[in-house]
Design brief:
With about 180 residues, the chain is mainly beta. It has a single domain, classed as Immunoglobulin-like (Sandwich). The chain has 1 helix and 11 strands; from the N terminus they run H-E-E-E-E-E-E-E-E-E-E-E. The strands form 3 sheets. The chain has a 5-stranded mixed beta sheet with strand order 1-11-10-6-7, with no helix packed on it. A 4-stranded antiparallel beta sheet has the order 2-3-4-9, with no helix packed on it. The protein has a two-stranded antiparallel ribbon with strand order 5-8. A hairpin with a 4-residue loop joins strand 6 and strand 7. The longest helix is centred in the N-terminal third of the chain and has 23 residues. The protein is globular.
C-alpha cells in the first residue's frame, strides 16, 4: 500500500514538473516554424524569406546611419491571397532566449525597403527588405496574419553571407534553377 502511494506521488511530481517546464518555455514553442525559402502561409498572407544581410552602417560620411548593434536586413515577399486589401503587419525577431526585437520604423537608406506601413491588394504582393537593429545571432522572424493574429515563425540561421536559397521554378517539376 505504501509503495503504491510513493509511486502515485512520484507520478504526480513528474507531471507537475512537465507542466511547469512547458509553461516556462513560452508560447512561441507551439508556433509553426518555417525554413528560409519556403512559403509561410499565415491567414491570407504568404510570406517567403529569401536572404539576409548584416550591415555595420547604412550610407557613408556625415549622413551614415549607425545602429546600436548591427543593421539586419531580411529580404522577403508577402503575398495577399485573400479577396480584400490587407495591411501586412510589422514583424518581430525572436532570439533563442525568447527576447523580441521590433522592426525599425525608419528605413532611410535601406536598399529596397518595403516600408513600415504596407498594404497589399488581392493577389498582389509587397517585397523588399525589412530592417532590425540586432546583435548577430540566430533568430526566428515572427510573422502574423492580416489581423496581427495567428503568428508563425520563420527560422533565420546566423549567416554573414547573403545566401539565396534554391527555389523551384514553375513548370520545372520542382527542380531548382541550374547553377543555383
Amino acid at each position: 500500500m505504501m509503495r503504491t502511494f510513493y509511486s502515485l506521488a512520484g507520478l504526480v511530481a513528474v507531471a507537475a514538473l512537465l507542466t511547469l517546464s512547458s509553461c516556462s518555455a513560452g508560447k512561441d514553442n507551439s508556433l509553426k516554424v518555417y525554413e528560409v525559402g519556403t512559403h509561410a502561409e499565415v491567414g491570407h498572407i504568404i510570406y517567403t524569406v529569401f536572404e539576409t544581410q548584416w550591415l555595420p552602417q547604412i550610407g557613408a560620411g556625415d549622413t551614415a546611419r549607425v545602429p546600436s548593434n548591427r543593421f539586419f536586413l531580411i529580404r522577403l515577399s508577402a503575398v495577399n491571397s485573400g479577396s480584400e486589401e490587407v495591411l501586412i503587419p510589422n514583424m518581430t525577431l525572436v532570439d533563442d532566449q525568447g527576447n523580441n526585437i521590433e522592426e525599425l520604423e525608419n528605413g532611410e537608406g535601406v536598399p529596397q525597403w518595403i516600408g513600415y506601413l504596407r498594404k497589399a491588394h488581392p493577389a498582389d504582393s509587397v517585397s523588399g527588405n525589412v530592417v532590425f537593429d540586432a546583435a548577430p545571432k540566430h533568430y526566428r522572424l515572427k510573422v502574423s496574419d492580416e489581423n496581427g493574429e495567428k503568428p508563425a515563425l520563420i527560422d533565420i540561421p546566423l549567416s554573414f553571407n547573403a545566401e539565396t536559397p534554391q527555389l523551384p521554378l514553375p513548370g520545372n517539376n520542382g527542380a531548382a534553377a541550374p547553377g543555383k
